[in-house]
Design goal:
Elements (H helix, E strand, L loop, with lengths): L5 E5 L8 H15 L3 E9 L23 E6 L3 H14 L3 E6 L5 H8 L7 E6 L11 H9 L4 E4 L2 H10 L5 E3 L14 H8 L7 E5 L8 H7 L11 E5 L7 H9 L6 E4 L5 H10 L2 E4 L9 H8 L3 E4 L2 H10 L2 E4 L3 H12 L3 H4 L1 H7 L5 H13 L3
Parallel strand pairs: 1-2, 1-4, 2-3, 4-5, 5-6, 6-7, 8-9, 8-11, 9-10, 11-12, 12-13
Length: 379
């Protein structure tokens, strides 16, 4: 390779779990495959226990192959930030990519970036520019972070637009959320349902991922009590760890008398479980009330399972462009009607050609090369 670069990624990575950690791993693997020298610095401590609502922050899966991951960063210890910056300066990377999804990390990233050598380019790779649950201090913290960056890359056009509205003078690459190419191969719906002990003769709608207020699960549950879904026999499967009391949702299920039509698994789903539930389902429902992009979408693309998404720019844009599902208004009655419409025909078969066409469009190889091209043009 004529222009090999040294790239350092800062953010969650193995042994931390979750979509952001997994995509950091994927990005590093693909930059290595492109011929670059890639390193990952992840956390010794990511969140204080008081701020983490889940059961554990750590993965039970094996570490990815051939990745240089070091646990170095304490997210709320300023003395540590100085040492991390010194370590970065000794490494002498060409680019440092700061993963940004919460204003909580802004002081840490600011503290590290301001002590780095000036010739190292600093790029913010942004999942969320505006948090889902907004606090009055968010804008101040985000400005603190952005003051140290040389440019930004986003995982959706809508996030890129939000950054543009705040930081007109900095370069921005408006990217996309890639489809992982090393996930387990899809299996038949019949086999997946057999392993899960899910009914073979029912249509199943899946809600997948960490359960938080902004994801609108309450609206989806209510939709199953609305005509035409209420008498349809369609099953709702809820799979994901609850980041708020799960009783909120089990009480709604009881209120609407849906106990026999809802499968609840309030546990974190690893890669193997994700494969099973996506392959077992007929439709993936993302009835979010706030979102700029979602890591569930590329999973659905990989397993070729159609999506029903809320009428929000960050969610609906790829679905409409790629013809991989439907868009619904954020209303239980409209959600019910949309689900029924999707399930009238053999939904998965109807969208197979569309899924085949977008595999290369959203590849990690394409994302990695575009990101390197963008960083290479920074002044």
């Amino acid at each position: 390779m004529k222009d090999k670069k040294k790239v350092l990624l800062l953010g969650p990575a193995h042994p931390f779990r979750g979509g952001i950690a997994e995509t950091q791993n994927y990005l590093a693997q693909n930059l290595n495959a492109l011929g670059h020298e890639t390193y990952l610095y992840t956390f010794t401590t990511q969140y204080p226990k008081l701020l983490f609502p889940g059961k554990t922050q750590f993965s039970d899966e094996n570490a990815p192959d051939n990745l240089n991951i070091k646990r170095k960063i304490h997210s709320f210890n300023p003395f540590n930030w100085i040492e991390v910056a010194r370590s970065i300066n000794r490494l002498k990377p060409d680019y440092v990519i700061f993963r940004y999804w919460t204003p909580f990390l802004a002081p840490c990233w600011y503290g590290i970036a301001r002590k780095m050598n000036k010739n190292i380019k600093k790029i913010g790779l942004v999942d969320n520019w505006i948090p889902h649950e907004i606090k009055f201090w968010d804008k101040t913290l985000t400005r603190m972070f952005s003051s140290q960056m040389d440019g930004f890359a986003s995982l959706s056009t809508s996030v890129g637009d939000q950054i543009s509205s705040d930081k007109h003078h900095l370069p921005i690459w408006k990217g996309f959320h890639p489809i992982a190419d090393n996930l387990p191969t899809a299996i038949t719906q019949e086999k997946a349902r057999k392993v899960l002990s899910w009914p073979q003769d029912k249509k199943i709608v899946l809600f997948f991922g960490l359960i938080r207020k902004y994801k609108g699960l309450d609206l989806l549950i209510e939709a199953f009590s609305q005509s035409p879904l209420n008498d349809s026999g369609v099953i709702l499967a809820i799979v994901g760890e609850a980041y708020e009391p799960s009783e909120k949702y089990t009480q709604l299920i009881q209120k609407y008398k849906l106990s026999e039509r809802v499968i609840c698994d309030f546990n974190y789903a690893n890669t193997q479980k994700a494969t099973l539930v996506f392959c077992a389902s007929d439709v993936i429902a993302q009835t979010y009330v706030s979102a700029t992009q979602s890591g569930v979408t590329p999973l659905a693309y990989h397993y070729k399972t159609p999506l029903l998404v809320s009428d929000l720019p960050g969610l609906k844009t790829p679905i409409l462009e790629d013809h991989t599902g439907m868009v619904t208004k954020i209303d239980p009655k409209k959600i019910a009607e949309s689900i029924q419409k999707m399930l009238r025909d053999k939904t998965r078969l109807n969208f197979q050609d569309s899924f085949q066409k977008v595999e290369k469009k959203y590849s990690w190889k394409s994302f990695g090369q575009s990101l390197m091209d963008f960083m290479g043009n920074l002044q």
